[in-house]
Design the sequence.
C-alpha cells in the first residue's frame, strides 16, 4: 500500500522505524545505501569543452580558415598586410566564443538555487533522543519534529499533527496554506495528500511529528530538479536564426572562394594572385562584425529593458521576448499580489464590500477575526507584528480596518484540524466566557442553532441554512476562499468536548489573493499585440476562472483543463485543446506545466513562461524565454529564468515585449546595412578576374569596412527606439527569418549594386585621371594604384554613410521617421574620422595601402550618394502603395 493510505503505526512499521526514531547504527547503514539527502547534479559537459565549442562551430571554423590562410599568405608573400587581417579575425573569434561560454555558464547556477531552499539543520529523533542533524544526514525512517516556520527537508508522512497548515506555494502555486493531519487517505496525488509533507514546503502554523519516507533525488523536490537538469537548453529563435545564417554565409563564402580561386587559375592569374583572390572573396562574404554587433545591440536592448523593470539574464532573450506569441503565466504572485485580502462579508443577508475603505462590521464578527487566531509575534520589514497563516493575517487587517475588538484574555483553545475544519478559542470577558469559532460553513452550519441579525438573534431554520449555503456558493464562484464565523456564551464549569455546539452563526467572509491593479491593461495590450495569455496555475479551477474574469483574460466561459484531465489526454488531444480561444490550466503539477510548454512549442509558438516558485523552474527553463518574479520569486525560479521582473509587475512584461520587438526590427536594419557593403566588396574582385583590371579593393581595406567603418553605425541602428505602431502588429512567426527574401533583395539587388557602381566609378575615375591604360597591371605599391583603391574604399564608406539613414526604415519615408538616436550620429562621425585617418595619415596609408585623395574625387562621389537617396526613396514609395 502507498504510505499515505497507511495508519501512522503502519507507516512506521513499513519503514522499520518507531516513534523513538532509528538507531544510530541503522541510520548510518541507510545513509550509505540511500546517499545523502541533497540534490544530485547530473554530470555535465566539462567547462573546457563548452568553452572549446565556441571556437569550433561552423562560422568559427571558416574564420579560423580565413585567418590561417592570411598568415600563410603573409609568410609566403610578405608586406601585403595579411598578418593584420589574420590577427583581426582571431580577435572576432575570441569575442564570440567568450560570449557563448558566458551563456552556458549561467545554467549551472539554477540547481544550486534549489539547494538553498532546503533547511541546513533539522530536529530528529535518534535512539529515543531529540537531536539536531544536518539536512544531508536524513534517511528514510527518520522521525522529524517540525513547528511553525520550519522548512520541510524531505518527503514525510505525518504521524502526529497539532493545528498544522502548510505553505505549498513553492510546489503548487497555491496562495493559501493547506491543512495537514495524520489521517490515512486514498488520494494518489502526493502534492494534495492531507497527511504528506513535501520537501521545499514550510509549516505556516502548528506542530508536527513526521516520518521521512523519501530523501534526495527520490523526493518530489528532487524530481523537479531532475526535470530542470535533463530538460536541456532551448535555443532562442534568434540563436537558431543566427546559427542558420552563419552556416549559410560561411558555406557560401567558402564555396565562392574555392570557385573564384579556380576561376583565377583558369584565366591565368597565377597561383598567388588566385590565392589572394580566393581569400578576398571569403573575407568579403563573411560579415566578421555581425555577431559582435548583434551582441552589442542585444546589450543595448537589455539596458533599456532594465530601465523598464525587466532584468535580462540571457541576452538572446531580448529579441525572443519580442517574438513571443504565447505567454504562459502563473497566477499566484504574477497576476495576483501573493497576499490574502478580505474582499466581501455576508451579514444578515447583506453583502458588505470590505475593500471600500473603513467599513462598519458587527462587533462579534470583528471579535472573531481579531481574537480567534494563532498568529505569533514576529518581524516584517523591521517592524514587530503578528505573523503566521496568511488567512489569519488578512482577517486581522480586516478587523483593524473596522476598529479592532478589545483584547480579551484567552483561557482555552480547540486547535484547527482537518476533521473538524474549524478553530475555536475561549475568552473571558466582563460578561463571562465566550467561545469564538471560524471555519468552513459545512463544519459550522450543523452545530449552529441560531443566527445573528441586525435586530438580534433568531432560530436557524432549514430555509435559512439553504440561504447560507447559497451565499457561500455565490462567494466561491467569485473565486473567494469562504470562512464562516460563529460564537456562543459559555457557562463556568464547561466540559471541553461540549464547547462547539449550539453556536450562533454570525456571517461569512470571502478572502482572495487580489489581482494586481495594472494587470488588466497589460492583458489588453497583449491582445492588441497578437499575444495569447494562458493561465497555468496549481490553484483551484474556480479561483483561476474568477481571477481570469477580473483581469479580462476570460470574457465568456473559458475552457478549463485540470491536471487530472491533462493526465488523461494524448498529445493530439492536448494539441487540439490548446487551440481554445480562452484557456485556463488549473491544478497542474510541474511536469504537466512543462508538457504544456513543449506542446505549444511543437505547434510553432514562441513561448514566454512566467513564474515565481520552484514548481515553475522546469517550465521556465524549457520556455523560449523564462520570466521570474524578482521580489516574490524563489532563487530557483530566478536562476532558471532568462528575465527577472524587478517589480513583479506583469505590466512590465508588455513594456519588455515592446523593447524586444524593437530589437528584432533593429537587427533587420543593421543586417541590411552590413550585408549591403558585401556587394561593393565582392564586385571589385569579380571585375579583377573577369576584366583583367587592377584589384580595386584589397583584403585589408575590406576589413576596414567590416570591422571599422561599419561597426559603430550598425550599432546605432541597433539602438533605434520602437516605432509607435509596433505593438499594434502581430508578433513575427517562429518560422519568420531575420534574413528573408525582402531583406536579401534590398541589400543585394538594390542598395548593394548602387554602392558597387559608385565604388568602381571612383576607382576608374582616379585611374583615368592618372593616365592608366586598360590592360596595364599596376604594382601594389604604385601611388596611382593606391590612390585608386583609396577612392574605391572611400566611395563605399560615403555610400554607407547615406545608407545608414536609408536603413532606418524598410518602407515609408526615405530616411525613416523621427530624429535619429545619438549613436547613429556618433557612428556617422566615427565613419568620417576613420576614413580621414585612413586616407590622410601616414599610419593609415601604411596599414591600408592608401593615398590622400583630392577634393575633386570626393565631389565625384556626391551624385552617386544623391542618386542612391532618390532611387531608394522611390522604391519605398512604391512598396507603400502596394500595401
Sequence:
Amino acid at each position: 500500500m502507498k504510505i499515505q493510505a497507511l495508519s501512522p503505526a503502519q507507516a512506521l512499521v513499513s519503514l522499520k522505524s518507531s516513534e523513538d526514531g532509528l538507531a544510530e547504527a541503522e541510520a548510518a547503514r541507510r545513509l550509505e545505501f540511500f546517499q545523502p539527502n541533497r540534490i544530485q547534479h547530473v554530470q555535465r559537459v566539462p567547462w573546457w569543452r563548452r568553452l572549446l565549442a565556441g571556437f569550433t562551430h561552423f562560422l568559427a571554423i571558416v574564420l579560423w580558415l580565413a585567418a590561417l590562410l592570411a598568415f600563410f599568405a603573409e609568410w609566403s608573400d610578405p608586406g601585403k598586410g595579411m598578418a593584420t587581417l589574420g590577427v583581426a579575425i582571431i580577435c572576432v573569434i575570441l569575442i564570440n566564443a567568450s560570449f557563448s561560454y558566458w551563456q552556458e555558464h549561467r545554467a549551472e547556477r539554477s540547481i544550486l538555487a534549489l539547494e538553498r531552499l532546503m533547511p541546513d539543520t533539522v530536529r530528529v529523533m535518534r535512539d529515543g533522543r531529540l537531536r539536531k542533524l544536518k539536512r544531508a544526514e536524513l534517511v528514510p525512517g527518520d522521525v522529524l519534529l517540525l513547528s511553525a516556520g520550519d522548512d520541510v527537508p524531505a518527503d514525510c508522512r505525518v504521524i502526529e499533527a497539532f493545528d498544522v497548515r502548510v505553505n505549498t506555494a513553492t510546489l503548487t502555486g497555491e496562495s493559501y496554506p493547506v491543512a495537514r493531519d495524520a489521517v490515512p487517505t486514498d488520494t494518489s496525488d502526493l502534492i494534495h495528500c492531507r497527511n504528506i509533507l513535501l520537501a521545499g514546503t514550510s509549516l505556516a502554523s502548528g506542530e508536527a511529528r513526521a516520518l521521512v519516507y523519501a530523501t534526495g533525488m527520490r523526493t518530489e523536490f528532487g524530481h523537479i530538479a531532475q526535470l530542470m537538469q535533463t530538460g536541456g537548453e532551448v535555443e532562442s529563435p534568434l540563436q537558431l536564426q543566427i546559427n542558420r545564417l552563419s552556416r549559410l554565409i560561411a558555406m557560401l563564402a567558402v564555396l565562392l572562394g574555392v570557385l573564384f580561386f579556380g576561376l583565377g587559375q583558369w584565366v591565368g592569374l597565377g597561383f598567388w594572385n588566385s590565392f589572394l583572390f580566393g581569400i578576398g572573396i571569403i573575407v568579403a562574404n563573411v560579415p566578421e562584425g555581425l555577431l559582435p554587433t548583434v551582441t552589442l545591440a542585444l546589450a543595448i536592448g537589455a539596458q533599456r529593458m532594465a530601465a523598464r523593470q525587466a532584468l535580462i539574464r540571457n541576452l538572446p532573450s531580448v529579441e525572443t521576448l519580442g517574438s513571443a506569441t504565447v505567454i504562459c503565466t502563473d497566477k499566484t504572485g504574477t497576476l495576483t499580489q501573493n497576499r490574502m485580502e478580505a474582499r466581501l462579508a455576508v451579514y444578515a443577508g447583506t453583502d458588505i464590500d470590505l475593500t471600500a475603505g473603513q467599513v462598519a462590521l458587527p462587533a462579534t464578527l470583528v471579535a472573531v477575526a481579531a481574537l480567534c487566531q494563532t498568529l505569533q509575534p514576529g518581524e516584517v520589514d523591521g517592524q514587530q507584528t503578528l505573523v503566521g497563516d496568511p488567512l489569519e493575517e488578512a482577517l486581522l487587517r480586516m478587523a483593524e480596518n473596522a476598529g479592532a475588538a478589545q483584547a480579551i484574555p484567552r483561557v482555552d483553545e480547540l486547535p484547527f484540524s482537518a476533521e473538524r475544519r474549524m478553530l475555536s478559542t475561549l475568552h473571558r470577558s466582563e460578561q463571562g466566557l465566550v467561545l469564538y469559532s471560524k471555519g468552513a460553513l459545512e463544519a459550522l452550519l450543523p452545530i449552529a442553532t441560531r443566527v445573528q441579525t441586525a435586530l438580534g438573534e433568531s432560530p436557524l431554520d432549514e430555509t435559512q441554512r439553504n440561504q447560507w449555503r447559497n451565499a457561500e456558493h455565490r462567494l466561491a464562484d467569485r473565486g473567494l476562499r469562504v470562512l464562516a464565523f460563529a460564537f456562543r456564551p459559555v457557562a463556568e464549569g464547561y466540559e471541553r468536548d461540549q464547547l462547539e455546539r449550539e453556536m450562533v452563526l454570525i456571517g461569512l467572509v470571502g478572502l482572495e489573493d487580489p489581482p494586481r491593479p495594472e494587470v488588466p491593461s497589460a492583458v489588453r495590450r497583449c491582445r492588441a499585440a497578437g499575444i495569447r495569455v494562458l493561465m497555468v496555475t496549481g490553484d483551484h479551477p474556480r479561483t483561476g476562472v474568477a481571477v481570469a474574469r477580473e483581469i479580462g483574460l476570460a470574457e465568456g466561459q473559458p475552457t478549463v483543463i485540470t491536471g487530472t484531465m491533462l493526465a488523461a489526454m494524448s498529445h493530439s488531444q492536448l494539441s487540439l485543446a490548446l487551440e481554445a480561444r480562452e484557456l485556463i490550466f488549473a491544478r497542474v503539477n510541474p511536469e504537466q506545466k512543462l508538457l504544456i510548454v513543449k506542446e505549444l512549442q511543437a505547434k510553432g509558438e514562441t513561448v514566454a513562461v512566467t513564474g515565481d516558485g520552484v514548481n515553475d523552474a522546469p517550465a521556465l527553463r524549457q520556455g523560449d524565454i523564462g520570466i521570474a518574479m524578482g521580489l516574490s520569486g524563489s532563487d530557483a525560479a530566478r536562476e532558471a529564468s532568462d528575465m527577472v521582473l524587478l517589480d513583479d509587475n506583469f505590466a512590465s512584461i508588455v513594456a519588455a515585449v515592446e523593447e524586444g520587438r524593437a530589437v528584432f526590427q533593429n537587427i533587420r536594419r543593421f543586417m541590411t546595412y552590413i550585408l549591403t557593403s558585401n556587394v561593393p566588396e565582392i564586385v571589385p574582385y569579380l571585375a579583377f578576374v573577369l576584366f583583367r583590371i587592377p584589384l580595386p579593393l584589397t583584403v585589408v581595406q575590406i576589413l576596414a569596412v567590416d570591422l571599422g567603418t561599419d561597426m559603430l553605425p550598425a550599432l546605432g541602428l541597433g539602438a533605434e527606439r520602437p516605432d509607435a505602431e509596433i505593438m499594434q502588429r502581430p508578433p513575427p512567426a517562429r518560422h519568420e527569418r531575420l534574413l528573408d527574401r525582402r531583406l536579401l533583395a534590398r541589400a543585394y539587388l538594390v542598395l548593394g549594386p548602387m554602392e558597387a557602381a559608385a565604388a568602381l566609378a571612383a576607382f576608374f575615375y582616379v585611374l583615368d585621371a592618372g593616365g592608366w591604360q586598360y590592360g596595364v597591371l599596376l604594382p601594389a605599391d604604385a601611388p596611382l594604384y593606391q590612390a585608386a583603391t583609396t577612392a574605391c574604399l572611400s566611395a563605399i564608406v560615403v555610400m554607407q554613410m547615406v545608407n545608414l539613414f536609408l536603413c532606418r526604415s524598410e518602407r515609408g519615408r526615405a530616411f525613416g521617421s523621427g530624429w535619429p538616436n545619438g549613436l547613429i550620429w556618433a557612428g556617422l562621425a566615427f565613419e568620417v574620422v576613420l576614413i580621414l585617418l585612413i586616407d590622410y595619415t601616414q599610419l593609415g596609408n601604411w596599414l591600408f595601402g592608401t593615398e590622400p585623395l583630392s577634393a575633386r574625387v570626393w565631389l565625384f562621389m556626391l551624385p552617386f550618394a544623391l542618386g542612391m537617396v532618390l532611387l531608394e526613396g522611390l522604391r519605398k514609395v512604391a512598396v507603400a502603395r502596394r500595401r
Summary: Residues 341-512 form a domain with the Calcium-transporting ATPase, cytoplasmic domain N fold (CATH 3.40.1110.10). The two ends are 69 Å apart (CA to CA). The first strand starts at residue 121 and ends at 126.
